[in-house]
UniProtKB/TrEMBL annotation:
Gene Ontology CC, one term: mannan polymerase complex
Family: Belongs to the glycosyltransferase 32 family.
Species the sequence originates in: Alternaria alternata (Alternaria rot fungus)
GO molecular function: alpha-1,6-mannosyltransferase activity
Residue ranges crossing the lipid bilayer per the database entry: 9-27
Pfam families associated with the record: Gly_transf_sug
Protein name listed in UniProt: Initiation-specific alpha-1,6-mannosyltransferase
Length: 314
């Protein structure tokens, strides 16, 4: 009798132990499967995390190439920052880059290649390059003012900044005026959703206008698309950043959030720079404000090589 009870006792506990072992095995197997799935998904679709602004400087050359004057301006940014790699894009290399890097977005490729106005392509190119690779975009007529690029973002914001934008019109203008970002100097980590918002908004405007006029992209004109500043330029970037950032922060941004700045201000993951930083010629300050104002980082020389009747160089 005792032997039978002892056997039953052992059988019961053996069964419990087997169940526990089986349960643990199933959990481990499930976790292994989940890990493998996660690795597969990450490799296929996940957006990589970038620690800082990549040390890349982007320029776009026109048909004339690099003039002596433009070389002096670009050298003022490149030579004092030897750890940064400067890349000069041409019309041909830009087209090839977009074909290759955005093959999964035929709407981007087809529309970019079909655009007939050079300045439209130059504007969109900067957004595409910075979204895909990150780094810094400079127009050819921008010179740097001696402060190392690594010091442009305050230390307390470096870990949380994925896009750096500066105001062209922000301070010292009388009455009511439209605050507008400049686009001759932009810094970004790759995959900024704010830049993709800008790209998608441009494509939507292009689709709307071509449908309205019953034309192809190749047949669009500056008269049809309207002011370049609105279509692909500074106001487009301004509206896109506000739209995207508003969605990210789940609130409507107001002027006091980002405007009338004397020091850089981080909102979400966008660092807004005072007008003095990137556009000192179009912003003015009182002596009291000058005492606490962030320094000038670049000068835009307004060479405006694209400003002719067909949006390109003469």
């Amino acid at each position: 009798m005792l032997a039978r009870l002892h056997f039953r006792f052992l059988s019961y506990h053996s069964l419990v132990a087997l169940c526990v072992i089986f349960f643990i095995y199933q959990i481990c197997t499930l976790r292994s499967v989940q890990d493998n799935i996660a690795v597969h998904i990450q490799g296929a679709t996940a957006i990589p995390k970038y620690e800082g602004i990549p040390k890349l400087i982007w320029y776009k050359l026109g048909p004339r190439g690099l003039s002596d004057e433009a070389r002096n301006w670009t050298d003022s940014c490149i030579k004092p920052n030897p750890e940064y790699e400067a890349r000069f894009m041409t019309d041909e290399s830009s087209d090839e880059y977009v074909r290759k890097k955005f093959a999964s977005r035929p709407d981007i490729v087809d529309n970019f290649l079909a655009l007939p106005v050079p300045i439209w392509k130059a504007d969109i190119l900067r957004y595409l390059l910075l979204w895909d690779q990150g780094g810094i975009w400079f127009d050819l007529d921008v010179s740097c003012e001696g402060i190392p690029i690594d010091d442009w973002i305050p230390a307390e914001y470096k870990g949380n900044t994925s896009l750096v934008v500066g105001w062209e019109f922000d301070h010292g203008w009388p009455g009511n005026y439209l605050h507008q970002m400049e686009i001759w100097a932009i810094m970004a980590k790759p995959r900024s959703p704010h830049l993709m918002q800008c790209i998608n908004d441009i494509l939507q405007e292009l689709a709307d206008k071509t449908a309205e006029h019953g034309i192809t992209v190749e047949n669009t004109t500056m008269d049809i698309m309207g002011d370049t500043v609105e279509f692909t330029g500074p106001r487009r970037l301004t509206s896109a950043v506000y739209k995207s950032l508003g969605g990210m922060t789940n609130r409507n941004l107001v002027g006091s959030d980002t405007e009338e700045l004397l020091q850089p201000k981080l909102v979400g993951d966008v660092l807004f720079m005072p007008g003095r930083s990137f556009a000192p010629m179009t912003n003015t300050y009182s002596p009291e404000e000058e005492a606490i104002l962030s320094p000038q980082l670049v000068t835009h020389h307004y060479a405006g090589t694209w400003k002719n009747s067909h949006g390109g160089e003469d």
